[in-house]
Amino acid sequence: MLEDLERPQVRPKQNQPLSANKYKLSLCQQRGPVHSVAIHPSGKLALSVGKDKTLRLWNLLKGRIGFTSNTQKPGDIVRWNSAGTKYGYLADTIVKIFDSAVSFPTLLNL
Q: Which residue in 43, 44, 47, 105 has the most C-beta neighbors within 10 A?
């Protein structure tokens, strides 16, 4: 968890992304250790995976979870592509890539 970050005195304007170096970020909904966090290129979203076998999408503007998906195994690494249109995670020896342009996670067949 990134709980040791300094909290600024001024709140961001609406629809302004949070900056991880200025705001306290607590992944309190993730049960167990968080193994990886990936911030979307826009700075408005984040993904996390951990020991609790979930992939979570975080809305950093509202400070809420957008969705939670079961990964079947503890996640090791999560990453966005540079355009923010796809994301993937590694869990044990399984790699899954998803299209983020749709409202519900869609697994891509490669």
A: 47
